[in-house]
Amino acid sequence: MKEKFKTIKVSGDININLGDKGIWEADKETLLYHIKEVCEEYHGLGYTLTLRQMYYQLVSKDLIPNHDKVYKKLGKLKDDLLYGGYVDWDIFVDRGRVPYIAYTEHNIKGALQRTVNSYNLNKQLNQETHLEVWTEKDAISGIIKRAVNPYTVRVVVNKGYTSSTAIYDSYQRFLDIIQKGQKVVILYFGDHDPSGLDMIRDIRDRVMNFFLNGDGIAQLNGHIVDWASSDEIMDEVEQLSEEDEELFDSYVKEDKNGSAFQWVRYFFDKHFEVVPIGLTMEQIEKYNPPPNPAKMTDPRSKPYIKKFGNVSWEVDALRPEVMTDIVQTKILEYMDYETYQDVLDREKIEIAELQDMVDNINK
User: Of 17, 45, 103, 259, which has the fewest CB atoms closer than 10 Å, so is most exposed?
Assistant: First the structure.
């Protein structure tokens, strides 16, 4: 809701020295109008905004220059609009400062009704592929969560390069999923910059390290792998298709760790994949997000600049509906729709059964 806590000055000139780029001048009243316009547009679509998302929307509309000093000024202008009662406080979200309280209920019927209202079957039941969406950016997690909710796809927010603990926890989860017969596919959504692209490699390499060197792989084939003997492994290889056997043989030839070790590597590649879904150069050319200079302090900048030039792009600059379309389109490429619909039909029946039970409770 809109609440006014102080009177703000909406008129006047804005002058910011951008160094080599000269002086940026803007009419404050006009700029506040455009900020309010972006806020109301997002709010009307049911989205909340971070300051960074609002900033990139204004940059992409060519209403402000892409510069750190302008970003800082925008934060002050946003607060002016909030405290002055010009925009709704519910539009903005601070994902780093979320209050917590333990779950409670008023009574039994209320608790059961909440169960009915939130009853949600796993839409990945019986699918050949288990999907997860990973992103480096917490700022866009709300948009991604909303996009994946109809398909109950897990969202993992790395906040940059993910931690060893988080990777290990994921590895343990993947072991269980693969053992149940599903392939694990991570759909990765991040910035197009030196670190953003390298995170795709980092995730795969670190998960593979656990598979190659950990004990968990033993449970996947239903027997303990004897690393000193390759008899059991070769029995498995003989059952492979010709194409898969060639893949396995190529691993053995390039690595002298033995067939057992390479069987795990083969098994990993067949059951785990990281698929980058954005930002891609194709998306950048299509949606034209505002560019940033590549970070020269990033140790991965040299090979990146050699391939793409001294420019990078942040995923935050895409509009929410564009992000949603990218994520959902890729999810549907992997899901069998008939199987998905079967789960929806079952869910509908079970919700009706639960509702009948709640309606018959007197308390």
Answer: 103
Distance of CA 83 to the CA centre of its chain: 32
Q: Please, what's the b/e burial string for 210-224 (b: 16 or more CB within 10 A of its CB; e: otherwise)?
A: bbeeeeebeebeeee
pLDDT 10s digits, 164-173: 999 999 999 9
| Mean pLDDT, residues 177-204 | 92
Residue located via tokens 């942040």? 314
Reported pTM: 0.82
Amino acid identity of residue 235, one-letter, is D
DSSP secondary structure string, 268-305?
A: HHHHEEEEEEES-HHHHHHH-PPEE---TTSTTHHHHH
What would be the CATH architecture of the domain defined by 128-335? 3-Layer(aba) Sandwich (3.40)
Tell how strand 272-278 and strand 291-292 pair up.
Answer: unpaired
Q: Residues near 29 by Cβ (< 8 Å), separated by ≥ 6?
A: 10, 11, 12
The DSSP code for 254 is H
Which residue ranges make up each domain of the chain?
13-91, 101-120+340-363, 128-335
Residue 284: which pLDDT band, with cuts at 50, 70 and 90? very high
Residue 122: Cβ within 10 Å count = 13
288 CB contacts (<8 Å, ≥6 apart)? 60
Structure tokens at 38: 């972006």
Question: In this structure, are residues 180 and 130 in contact, taking their beta carbons and an 8 Å threshold?
Answer: no
